[in-house]
Amino acid sequence: MKALKSALSGACVAVLGLAGFVTPLAAQGVERNILTGGPTGTYIQFGRDIAEAAKKCDIDINVRESAGSLENFLGVRQRPQTQFAIVQSDVLEYLKTFAAGDSELARAVAGVRIAFPLYNEEVHILARREIASLEDLAGQRVSIGVADSGTFLTASLVLDLAQVEPSERVTENADESLRQLLAGKIDAFFYVVGAPTKIFQSPQIDEERFHLLPITDPTLQTVYQVTSIPAGTYPFQTDPVDVVAVKAVLMTYEYNPRRNAYHAESCKAVSDVAHVISTQFRDLQQSGHPKWQQVDLTDLPPGWDIGGCVNTGVDPSYELRCDQTAETSTSDAAPATAGSDASRAYRDRICAAIGC
């Protein structure tokens, strides 16, 4: 656990030294960017769904691949013109927990806000058929994801909390992990991702050789949400598999539109996209990734504030070109509310937009 904390703290220190987005930038030409994940995961499909919905309002959003949740969290802090990222909630909780005693982590967490709660991500562990349980990973070669990913953090916590120690913790992405598993170089790999996901649709996964491990450890069931991957979700999977899950959230930064032109334009970008998601939510559920059907926009993770620019965008009176009304500038308006008041205002406005 100490090694994991040290790695995360070091990454935050490096990023904070490069966090140039807080300096004034020219307002003209500010891009809208969302950090997602790998090319076969659910994050990137959600990003593409949001970008497609935004096009209806003449809004361009660049969907960027990444290593996953930790890179995404740090990217919103580091990268100019990156207003959104999809992150696992346990990454946020881990960083926030240790921020109280670590000034560098506290600086990394400062200003982070929730844009929208999304869906539950199931903890997938694909293993050789001979490995029957999570406990059987002890002494095995297990891939836990690349170091900047949410999979890495969740897999590390799962193994530590369950007191399971593999003989080797391999740090590879999901695609490379699957290749190594098929080649017999590793015995199992973790992938935290919303089911169904493309990588496990591969015809190379032989049900006689491989299966998804159940995760039924009582300690883990108190930390994570208990869920199940239904039978037939993947071609090799004939039975339901009991696992645990962590919620994915769309995060942003608390831009202050009164600070400078860059913050004003970035705040407007956040408000615009928030308006798109809240007003086109039912369409996203019908035509987007199947996980949109499991999204509850009112299911906010406790202890995290909604962004003020988000609340501006979900207000029913917010005007955008796709509404065939005049645009409203946020450059002279402070974020709607703060703290828990922001969460209450958000829920009220979301319920007005989609019904609750």
TrEMBL record:
Residues 1-27 form the signal peptide. Gene3D superfamilies: Periplasmic binding protein-like II. The keyword Heme does not apply. Keywords: Receptor, Signal. Pfam families: NMT1_3. The keyword Transport does not apply. This is TRAP transporter solute receptor, TAXI family. The lineage of its organism: Bacteria, Pseudomonadati, Pseudomonadota, Alphaproteobacteria, Rhodobacterales.
